[in-house]
Amino acid sequence: MTPEQQAAFTIERPAPIAVTLAPPVAPIVFEARPLFLRWLCIATASTLVLAALAVGGFADGVSGGPLAVTVLIVASTAALAGFAGLLHWRADRLLGCDGAELAHLRHDAQLVFYAVALFQVLGMIGALLGYRQQTHSAALPDGQAAVHALTLGLGNGLTATLTGVVCSVIVWVMFLHLQHALDRPR
What we know:
It is built from six helices and no strands. By secondary structure, it is an all-alpha fold. The N and C termini lie far apart (73 Å).
C-alpha cells in the first residue's frame, strides 16, 4: 500500500470525553497556617487541663448559683476559644499585608482581651452567690450543720472563682499569642 492509500484507511480516534470536556485542573496549593496550628496546640492543652480538673472531681458538690456561673464560664470559654481560633486562621492569611483588614483583626482581638476580665468578674459573682448560699446556714440551730453549710457555700463560691481564673488564663494565653503575632515586625 502506498502512503495515500494508508491515509485513506486510517481512522483518527477522537480524544477521550473526559479530556475534551474537563477543563485543566490546577494543582491544589495548601496555605501554611502556623499561627492557627499553634493556637490548636494551646486549645488542645487547655481542653486537657479542663478535662483533668473535671475528671479529678474539681466541681463535685457544687450546686445552685455557683454551678450555673461555673457552667456559663466554661461554655463561654469554649465559644471564645473558637472565636480566637477563627482570628488566628484569619491572621495567618493577613500577616503579610498591612491595611484595613489587619486593623479590623486587631480590633476583633480586643474582644478576646475583654473576656479575660469578664471571666474573672463572673468568677467573683459565683463566689458572691456561694457566700449568699452560705448565709442561710446562720439560721440552722445545730452548730455542726451550720459549719457544714458554711463550708459548702464557701467551697461552691471558690470553685466558681477558680474556674473564672483558670478560664481567663486560658483566654489570656490565646490573646497574647495572637497579639504577639500581630505586633511582630515583618
